[in-house]
Design brief:
Layout lengths: L48 H4 L3 H6 L14 E4 L20 H8 L6 E6 L1 E3 L3 E2 L4 E7 L13 E4 L8 E2 L3 E3 L7 E3 L2 E3 L1 E2 L8 E4 L4 E3 L2 E3 L6 E7 L8 E3 L2 E3 L4 E6 L5 E7 L2 E3 L10 E15 L5 E15 L7 E6 L2 E10 L6 E7 L2 E5 L2 E3 L6 E2 L7 E9 L7 E4 L5 E4 L2 E5 L28 E2 L17 E2 L4 E6 L6 E6 L4 E3 L12 E3 L6 E7 L4 E7 L6
Parallel strand pairs: 1-2, 2-5, 3-6, 4-8, 5-9, 6-10, 7-11, 8-12, 9-13, 10-14, 12-15, 13-16, 14-17, 15-18, 16-19, 17-20, 18-21, 19-21, 20-21, 21-22, 22-23, 22-24, 23-25, 24-26, 24-27, 25-28, 26-29, 27-29, 29-30
Antiparallel strand pairs: 31-32, 33-34, 35-36, 35-38, 37-40, 39-40
């Protein structure tokens, strides 16, 4: 009895999260050797990658060609690697192009905002994206309703056979603004020459949304490099899933004078890293990170400048610090951040310039050897307020040193217990905030396993998105399950099924959930009980 992942609207996060199950054979999670990011037991001696800057990578990136002018009218173009031909005009599915770049070249000759629709398939190519194009993957061959989960559209190489493509697989050169890139799998890019495996954005402002970026490799950035040399429009990277990219998954570098706003929102990053100081996100500049989950990376957030982090979950960081703050004269704010179960300090600082940092409404627990290591020079300030910190924090305000009572729920392991959601006790993090959840936009999210939204005083720590209900599918054949009932949350007791005729073998699935679904028998009541289990066994 187990589960498989579903698909959130506009996002690959739930469709491609690794599957795990107990009570039946788990679906395997294959990890390419080159994409694992190194051996956690081996830590090469090298300077912090994020502190080094992009160096020669910036120069190489700036050599990108200026985009072509657009003399012709706007049009829609289609790509079908199965039946298309680059000799076609690409204006219908019946006359589709065979390669993505051929369609982009055609769109580059059309004025206004063009759309390039790409059918499922593996496109062994690297592309350069012009301005004012919506590039959409996830269509069935021959055309039809778009569904990125059912119609995987792959750009790049094949890591299983070590057939890498020289990265970046996707390039957004200067001026590539007004562009949407959505619904693709970007994989197998090697940054040995360019420094970037999957994607490069230089002085451009595309929206990168709802993609799976996996198994890319580089000595600097396996995932996405974002580089700005001057103020201008800013990219938005939203709702993507990053899996097993070596070195940094995301590297952002911009002048301090440029406000990047919320450049990262709603992304999940798993298994990135490979060297000391390399991991999930390197952010050099001024901006905001929001609604992010970092899971089992070599390091978490490496910040240098002035950065706000709001509603983040960082756990199982295995080689370096969950959050590193460079003392470089800027300001940092961590709000509603949960940092748990790491193998280094949760928050670490170093550097030579006076710096100000705030940690509010957060949970810092279970990190070894400690929670906060503050090393900024004289003249710096660290404010820790209304935060749950294991071991406490001298000088803080409203500090709680109590077990947060984490509890597994539908989307992860770091909900907090509450009697109203069916747990035996209520976490001290509940309603412990100094302001309301509504005042900071958390009243549509939840810390409860039953997805009841946070109201009144804000709960501490990361807030998951709310699921209005959970659908339980059931059947006697694993690949033929049908809707059985809907519930607000688990546990759920399927009463009277033990020993019932025709139900000797049962399979269950909760498609909205991402976490591990466990089952147990209650012989006293003749029930099968469904509940969520800590989802760490797949690692």
């Amino acid at each position: 009895m187990g589960r498989k992942p579903g698909l959130a609207s506009g996002s690959f996060q739930r469709a491609f999260r690794p599957s795990r199950a107990k009570g039946m054979q788990a679906m395997p999670t294959r990890v390419g050797e080159f994409g694992r990011g190194g051996d956690p037991g081996k830590r090469p001696s090298r300077p912090r990658m994020c502190a080094m800057g992009v160096g020669a990578l910036a120069l190489a990136a700036l050599l990108c060609a200026v985009l072509a002018s657009h003399p012709a009218p706007a049009a829609d173009f289609y790509v079908d690697g199965t039946s298309g031909s680059d000799g076609n005009d690409g204006l219908t599915w019946a006359t589709a192009k065979a390669t993505v770049q051929a369609a982009l070249d055609a769109a580059g000759g059309a004025a206004g905002a063009d759309t390039v629709s790409v059918a499922a398939g593996h496109y062994w190519e690297k592309i350069t994206v012009p301005a004012d194009v919506s590039l959409l993957g996830g269509f069935p061959p021959g055309g039809g309703a778009r569904d990125p989960k059912a119609n995987p559209t792959i750009l790049g190489g094949d890591t299983w056979h070590r057939s890498f493509i020289d990265g970046p697989v996707v390039d957004f050169p200067p001026g590539s603004d007004g562009t949407l890139f959505e619904g693709f799998i970007v994989q197998g890019g090697s940054g040995r020459r360019s420094g970037t495996g999957a994607m490069r954005i230089v002085d451009a402002a595309p929206v990168i949304r709802g993609n799976l970026i996996q198994w890319n490799a580089s000595e600097a950035t396996g995932g996405i490099l974002v580089l700005y040399t001057r103020p201008g429009a800013v990219a938005r990277i939203e709702g993507n899933l990053f899996l097993w990219n070596s070195m940094e998954a995301v590297w952002i570098d911009a002048p301090d004078s440029m406000d990047l706003g919320t450049i990262l929102k709603g992304n999940v990053i798993q298994g990135s890293g490979g060297g000391v100081g390399a991991g999930a996100v390197c952010f050099r500049g001024r901006g905001r990170i929001e609604d992010i989950v970092l899971d089992y990376n070599a390091s978490g957030l490496d910040l240098n400048g002035s950065v706000d982090v709001f509603n983040a979950l960082i756990y199982w960081t295995w080689a370096e610090y969950a959050v590193h703050l460079e003392c470089s004269g800027g300001t940092y704010r961590l709000e509603n951040v949960t940092i748990a179960d790491g193998t280094k300090f949760a928050i670490h600082t170093e550097g030579s310039q006076p710096t100000n940092a705030e940690v509010v409404h957060s949970i810092i627990w279970g990190n070894d050897p400690g929670q906060i290591a503050w090393n900024c020079p004289v003249g710096s300030t660290l404010t820790v307020e209304s935060t749950l910190v294991q071991g406490g924090f001298p000088g803080g305000t409203n500090i709680l040193d109590q077990d947060p009572l984490f509890f597994p729920g539908p989307l992860g392991d770091y909900y907090v217990s509450e009697t109203g959601a069916g747990q035996a006790a209520t976490s001290p993090a509940v309603d412990a905030g100094s302001w309301t959840a509504a005042s900071v936009g958390l009243d549509a999210r939840t810390t409860r396993t039953d997805s009841v939204a946070d109201t009144g005083a804000a709960d501490l720590g990361y807030h998951y998105r709310s699921l209005p209900f959970l659908t339980i599918l059931r059947g006697t054949v694993a690949d033929n399950l049908t809707p059985y009932t809907s519930v607000a949350g688990l546990p759920f007791a399927d009463a009277g099924v033990l020993g019932a005729p025709g139900l000797e073998r049962l399979y269950y699935l909760v498609p909205e959930a991402e976490n591990e679904l466990g089952v147990r028998k209650d012989t006293r009541t003749g029930s099968v009980v469904l509940e969520f289990l800590p989802g760490r066994s797949w690692r």
